[in-house]
Design goal:
The chain folds into 2 domains: about 5-200, inorganic pyrophosphatase (n-terminal core) (Alpha-Beta Complex), CATH 3.90.1640; about 210-320, Diaminopimelate Epimerase, Chain A, domain 1 (Roll), CATH 3.10.310.30. It has about 325 residues and is of the alpha/beta class. A hairpin with a 2-residue loop joins strand 6 (about 220-225) and strand 7 (about 225-230). The strands form 2 sheets. Strands 6-7-8-9-11-10 form a 6-stranded mixed sheet. The protein has 12 helices and 11 strands. The protein is globular and about 55 Å long. The longest helix is centred in the first third of the chain and has 17 residues, at about 5-20. It is about 40% helix and about 15% strand.
Length: about 325
């Protein structure tokens, strides 16, 4: 989206908020810093702008970032949902959204999507602000707030938005980090939230994570320019890892000679999450072949047979654009 399109969205978005007494904000399944930070920041901002509105942040942080003050709400009644505005952040397809039964059963009056993922969706959204040039959905929301009401920013809102941008940009490493990203982050920092404390907590590691790192370094494999690791559910339980601790695909990032790195993480039902990353190639096209998608250089997929692991690795090694 160009800026003029964002301005149009901002005007319509603000009107939809004004038109609804009840607002329900959704994040995606297997949450991360961006979807959680975007959801919490948006809830705080709308409540600050419209104190009389009733706002629900549904879902859970699933033990992620426990040092932050997460506040989630129970799912409202069908009577409230039928009058409510639903806002989906950092997600597109219904099967990727937490509490998606509310959407699939058409319980909400109006739906809006704010997302930086390039894929289309399968939901009848009334409004969309979809722009993959942003490093994070939190960056989109920061841009919206700065456009609509810059003086409304405060420490709590800034902290959650910063969390989303910082984590989803790979700590400003990914190539979606732009001058706009840094300008918005600079603006967020003007609110004087405790960024050092946030960085310190984000950098803390547990012994189990250290053991996981040791496991990965002892069990990774390579094929041409691809470095990868498969983590079975048995080993996840043995290492006493929580589900979100296994997503550390960055353990194999940027190894000289290996442009693509992949984690294969087995779930309790034996399905396998595929975390694809590259510092050179478009790996989203490969993710699309296996029930997934995402950004060009950071994508995810799902497979149901260990035999497909080597198949994906070999296909990844053939990517040339």
């Amino acid at each position: 989206m160009k800026n003029n399109s964002m301005k149009t969205f901002a005007k319509q978005f603000l009107q939809e908020i004004k038109n609804h007494q009840y607002i329900v904000i959704f994040h995606h399944q297997r949450p991360d810093g961006d979807c959680l930070g975007s959801q919490q920041a948006l809830k705080l901002w709308i409540k600050k702008m419209f104190p009389n509105k009733t706002i629900y942040a549904v879902g859970s942080n699933e033990n992620l970032f426990p040092f932050l003050n997460w506040k989630f709400n129970k799912i409202p009644s069908n009577k409230i949902l039928s009058k409510a505005l639903g806002i989906v952040v950092d997600a597109n397809y219904a099967n990727r959204i937490i509490c998606n039964e509310l959407i699939l059963e058409n319980k909400l009056k109006t739906l809006i999507r704010i997302d930086h993922h390039p894929e289309k969706d399968d939901i009848n959204y009334k409004l969309r602000f979809v722009d993959p040039t942003y490093s994070a959905s939190a960056e989109q929301i920061a841009d919206l707030i700065k456009l609509i009401a810059p003086s409304s920013l405060d420490k709590k809102i800034s902290q959650f938005l910063y969390l989303g941008i910082y984590t989803d940009s790979g700590r400003f490493f990914y190539d979606t980090t732009t001058a706009r990203t840094h300008a918005l982050v600079s603006w967020l920092l003007e609110s004087n939230f405790k960024v050092f404390d946030l960085h310190k907590n984000l950098s803390l590691r547990t012994i189990s994570e250290l053991e996981f790192n040791k496991y990965v370094l002892s069990n990774y494999k390579t094929h041409k320019n691809v470095i990868y690791c498969f983590i079975s559910y048995h080993d996840i339980k043995k290492l006493k890892l929580k589900d979100n601790n296994t997503n550390r695909v960055d353990f194999l990032a940027n190894i000289e000679g290996y442009d693509i790195w992949i984690f294969f993480i087995q779930n309790v039902d034996k399905s396998i999450r595929v975390r694809l990353r590259s510092n050179k190639f478009n790996i989203a096209q490969l993710a699309h072949q296996y029930n997934g998608g995402g950004h060009k250089k950071a994508s995810g997929a799902i497979i149901y047979d260990e035999k497909e692991i080597l198949e994906i690795v070999k296909k990844a090694a053939l990517i040339r654009d």
